[in-house]
Design goal:
This protein is of the alpha/beta class. The chain has 17 helices and 15 strands. A nine-stranded mixed β-sheet has the order 3-4-2-1-5-6-7-9-8, with helices on both faces. The chain is globular, with a radius of gyration of 22 Å. The chain starts with a strand and ends in a 23-residue tail after the last helix. The C terminus is likely disordered. The structure holds adenosine-5'-diphosphate-glucose.
C-alpha cells in the first residue's frame, strides 16, 4: 500500500510523549501503525496562536513523521472545548443532560475542519491511504472530497455511537452524518455502536444497508464495520517485565502492609463512572465492616479537559466524595481511598496493575476501554487478580469472563467487590486465561491490520466481520 496519512485532533509526538510517560491508547496505537507503514501523522499541536496561519510544523521522532498546526483561541473554544467536548462527547456518551447546543460551537467545528483540510491537502499524494480519527473530525473527508481528493479515506470512531433517538436531538444531525458518508470505510469499536449507526442511516436517511454492512450513497459504496481496538500487547508485556514495574509493584505492596488492593485508572471524565464507583466502595465498606481496614482503593485519575465546566464539576464532586468516605471510614493508620490526580509512566502503571487484587473498570459508557485490557495483560497467570467490568464498556462484549456489572447499581458493584476479593484461585486462573487470550489475540496490531486491509480493498470487506451486525429493524436497546 502507499503511505499512511493519519489525521486526528491531537498529535502525540513519540519522544516527547514517551518522556512524559502518559501516552493514551490512541497515541500508542497510531505510533505503531506509522512505524510499520510509513507516512505522516497530522493534527493540532495543542498550541495556541494569535492568528491562524496554516504553518505546518514537520518533525521526525522515533521513526514517525508528524505535521502539526496551531489553532486560534476562538478555534480552541468553539471547536475543541465547544462542539467536540461540550456537544458531541456528552451526546455520544448518552449524556444528553450535559450536551450543549450552541450555534457558535457548530460554526467553529466546521471552520476548524476546513482549516484541517486546507493544511493537510498539500501533504496527500495520489497513492496514500488517509485514516481519520474520531468525533472531532467527522466532516473532514467530505471537505477533502470537495477539494478533489480521491484517495481511499477511512474513519474510526473511538467513542460509542448514540442511539438514533438521542442523535436526532442534535441540530443538523442529518448534515453531519451525510458528510460522514464520503468515507470509504467507517469503523466502530463494537457491533453495538455499528448497529446504532446503521439504524440511523436506514431510518433517518432511508438508505439501504447490504448484508455485508455496505451502504450505497450518491454512487459511493461505504463499508461500515466493527473493529475492536486492543492494546499493544508485546509492548505492554515488556513494560510489565521491566525493573520499573517491579519497583512500582513492590512500592505499592509495601505501602498497604498486607491489605487487599482495588485499583481504578481513568482519565478524570464523567463517562468513567468514578462517583458511582466511590459510592459503591463506600457501600461495600458499610456492608462489610469486618473488611474495613483490610482493603484499599487506589484511584489514579489524571485531570483532562479542565477548561470545560462539567469537568471542573466532576473534579470537585470526587474530591468531596473522597473526603466524605475517608472521613467516615479512616483510622489513625488507614485511609480507604487513595485518590491520585496524576499520570504515571506506563512501566509504573503496569506494576500497579499487577499489585492490585481487583480492578474496578466501571464506566457508565465507554467506546472500548483499554485499561481493562491492560489490567489483564499485567497479571501473573499463576495468581491473577479479578477484573470487575462495566457492561456498558465496549470491552465487555469480548471480555465476558470478567465480572460484569451495572455501574449505576451501587448494591451490585458492592456485592461484586466482595465476590472478587473472595474468588478462589482456580476460578481466578480459569477466567484470567480466557481473558488473556482475548486481549492477546485482539491486540492493536490485529486492529490495525483489519482496518487497513479493509480500507485498502476497493472491492469491499476483506472477510466477514467477526460478529456481523444484524440488520436492525427496530431501535437497538439503549443497553
Ligand atoms: P480514553 O477515554 O482515554 O480513550 P481508555 O481506553 O481507557 O480511555 O484509554 C486510556 C489510556 O490512558 C490507557 O492506555 C491508560 O493506561 C492511559 N492512562 C489513563 N490514566 C493514566 C495515568 N494516570 N497515567 C498513565 N496513563 C494513564 C478513548 C475512548 C475509549 C477507547 C480509546 C481507544 O474513550 O473508549 O478505548 O479511546 O480507542
Amino acid at each position: 500500500m502507499g503511505r499512511l496519512i493519519v489525521i486526528s485532533n491531537r498529535v502525540s509526538v513519540p519522544s516527547a510523549a514517551g518522556a512524559a510517560g502518559a501516552q493514551g491508547g490512541l497515541a500508542v496505537a497510531l505510533n505503531s501503525a506509522l512505524r510499520t507503514h510509513g507516512g505522516i501523522w497530522f493534527g493540532w499541536s495543542g498550541q495556541e496562536t494569535a492568528e491562524f496561519t496554516g504553518h505546518l510544523d514537520m518533525q521526525r521522532n522515533d521513526g514517525v513523521t508528524t505535521a502539526t498546526i496551531d489553532l486560534e483561541p476562538q478555534d480552541i473554544d468553539e471547536y475543541y472545548n465547544g462542539y467536540a467536548n461540550r456537544t458531541l462527547w456528552p451526546l455520544f456518551h448518552y449524556r444528553i443532560d450535559l450536551t450543549e447546543y450552541d450555534r457558535n460551537f457548530g460554526e467553529g467545528y466546521e471552520r476548524v475542519n476546513e482549516r484541517f483540510a486546507d493544511s493537510v491537502f498539500p501533504l496527500i499524494e495520489p497513492d496514500d491511504i488517509v485514516w481519520i480519527h474520531d468525533y472531532h473530525l467527522l466532516p473532514l473527508a467530505s471537505i477533502l472530497r470537495g477539494k478533489g481528493v480521491q484517495n481511499r479515506i477511512g474513519l474510526f470512531v473511538h467513542t460509542p455511537w448514540p442511539p438514533t433517538r438521542l442523535l436526532a436531538s442534535l441540530p443538523f444531525h442529518d448534515r453531519l452524518v451525510a458528510s460522514m458518508l464520503q468515507h470509504d470505510v467507517i469503523g466502530f469499536q463494537t457491533t453495538e455502536w455499528l448497529e446504532s449507526f446503521l439504524h440511523y442511516v436506514q431510518k433517518e436517511m432511508g438508505l439501504k444497508v447490504g448484508l455485508d454492512n455496505t451502504i450505497e450513497y450518491e454512487g459511493r459504496r461505504i463499508v461500515a464495520r466493527a473493529f475492536p481496538i486492543g492494546i499493544d500487547y508485546p509492548e505492554f508485556s515488556e513494560a510489565v517485565a521491566s525493573p520499573a514495574a517491579a519497583e512500582a509493584h513492590d512500592r505499592l505492596k509495601a505501602s498497604v502492609r498486607g491489605r487487599k488492593i482495588l485499583i481504578g485508572v481513568d482519565r478524570l471524565d464523567y463517562s468513567k463512572g468514578l462517583g458511582e464507583r466511590f459510592e459503591s466502595f463506600a457501600r461495600f465498606l458499610s456492608d462489610h465492616p469486618e473488611r474495613t481496614g483490610n482493603v484499599v482503593l487506589l484511584q489514579i485519575a489524571p485531570p483532562s479537559r479542565g477548561d470545560v465546566a462539567s469537568y471542573q464539576q466532576i473534579r470537585e464532586d470526587l474530591e468531596r466524595k473522597t473526603g466524605h468516605i475517608n472521613g467516615a471510614h479512616a483510622d489513625v493508620d488507614f485511609v480507604p481511598i487513595r485518590y491520585v490526580n496524576r499520570g504515571y509512566p506506563r512501566n509504573q502503571l503496569a506494576g500497579f496493575y499487577r499489585a492490585a487484587d481487583v480492578a474496578l473498570v466501571t464506566p457508565l459508557r465507554d467506546g472500548m476501554n483499554l485499561v481493562a485490557k491492560e489490567y489483564i495483560a499485567a497479571q501473573d497467570p499463576e495468581d491473577p487478580g479479578v477484573l470487575v467490568l462495566s457492561q456498558f464498556a465496549g470491552a465487555a462484549l469480548r471480555l465476558k469472563d470478567a465480572l460484569l456489572v451495572n455501574p449505576h447499581s451501587v448494591e451490585q458493584v458492592a456485592e461484586t467487590i466482595q465476590r472478587a476479593l473472595d474468588m478462589p484461585l482456580d476460578e481466578r486462573r480459569r477466567r484470567h486465561a480466557k481473558l488473556l487470550a482475548a486481549v492477546r489475540d485482539e491486540d492493536v496490531s490485529h486492529w490495525l491490520d483489519q482496518f487497513l486491509r479493509t480500507l485498502e480493498d476497493e472491492d469491499g470487506p476483506v472477510e466477514a466481520a467477526p460478529e456481523p451486525a444484524t440488520q436492525p429493524t427496530t431501535e437497538p436497546a439503549c443497553s
